[in-house]
Prior knowledge:
The chain is α+β, with helices and mostly antiparallel strands. It has three domains: 194 residues, no CATH class; 128 residues, no CATH class; 141 residues, no CATH class. The chain has 19 helices and eight strands.
Amino acid sequence: MKTGFRQSMAWLHTWTGLLLGWLLFAIFLTGTIAYFRSEVTYWMRPELHGQRPAEDPAALALKRLAELAPEASSWSITLPDPRSPVLSVSWSKPGEAAGRRGGPVTVLDSGSGEILHPRETAGGEFLYRFHYELYGLPRELARWIVGIATMAMFIAILSGVITHKKIFKEFFTFRPGKGQRSWLDMHNMTAVLALPYHIMITFSGLVLFVATLMPFVIERGPARGPAPPQEVVEPPPPRPLPVLTPLAPLMAQAEATWDWMPVGRIQIGKLDTAAPEIVLVPLRQSVVTVQSGSGSNGVERLRFDGLSGALLDETGRPGASAVAKINMALGALHRARFADTGLRWLFFIAGLAGTVMVGTGLVLWVSKRAAKHAKAAVKPVGLCLVDRLNIGSIAGLCLACAGYFWASRLLPAEAATASLGRAELEIAAFFGIWAAAMLHGFLRPPARAWTAQLGLTAALLLLMPVLNAVTGPSNLALALWRGDMVLASVDLMALISGLAAGYAAWHSRSKAARIAPPRRPATVPGE
């Protein structure tokens, strides 16, 4: 420990950032990609591409449900939206306990109503879950690990602000080609660029983990006993479907109530009774306030009489305490549930800044100590270990993410093994590539390993639009022409990320050339 307050904060900043830095990099990178997990999942299922949505997809879904499940007790419709242009339906049979969205999901062509059979994929949901639950570990243990890493990140941010007296001046300073100085400038720039975001995302993450990290201060309800055995209910005899009220006026009324937030989901229940009901749920939260509702006045859903269309009630969370409302608001902020496309991109850019901040901090630790031991015959074991772990944890994880996209398209649509489904095979490919990259970082000289892994990442990302065109019915040009920005945005972001990875690979190659030992000139026989 160093003497003096700022020196102590610098020591704390360095070691909290290093000890959990590799995990924090993985949390930041996968969490940042997960801001667009719906778009990622859509890209990974080419069977859904190229649809031309009908003018009234709700009416189309209602018509198809009447054909597919005329004897169901409840129907559920998930409407296409700007992030996922997919129309899906589900239903529950009489006597079944209806889940939140009914039974198994059936995907429909949003233009014709034809049943589609998209491939099974882990999609963006895997990256989202890995971001806070890792993978393959018991859920509670994983949450403890990520919660502790989040606390370390929060401490590193606060100690970093205290350490740098001229932090905002340093934000406007970048000196390229200066080695260690350049890494420090990049670290400072990305830290200050999104400092409010970094504080918000770590603090809200801690709040989300409070039940794990502080279990004894959380008031829990009484323990639930075993569920009573369900009685077998005989299905009722066939009955005529009730004539439901048109959905369009109800949706217009709901959107006006929610400050013009679109309807995201339609639930139609009690179809096996004389009093069916229609419940409308908004697409997303429209604001982040202590109301924590999905629209004005905290109204989360509207319930209508299914025959007359009369409004029965508005459901919100009026009974929630102020603490619960603040907790829900912080959760909405952390997950960006309220964000439209533009604001979601701002969150994404801030997340990338956090990812670069963590990565440059890890590289800076090695750069500082490598300069200190430059003339030593043997470098410290700890320095060599961190240097090698940086390669697999930073470049290797980027390579694994790019390979994950490729695996989703290259695996056959019906791929499966005796123990693994297709989604699990995609995840296995992700971890297999990552493990190979970690091993490669120990087998090759560091500069060459950085170059190889970043170069391969760049190639995979730059070729993703080609992969999309070859393995699916659409391509980047066609998606732009049709206005399918969900598909086009993934391809475009892959191109931008590929260029960045390519530049980093070129920079690593130049460094490898500078530090390579000079070749001895060939001798001519007889000299």
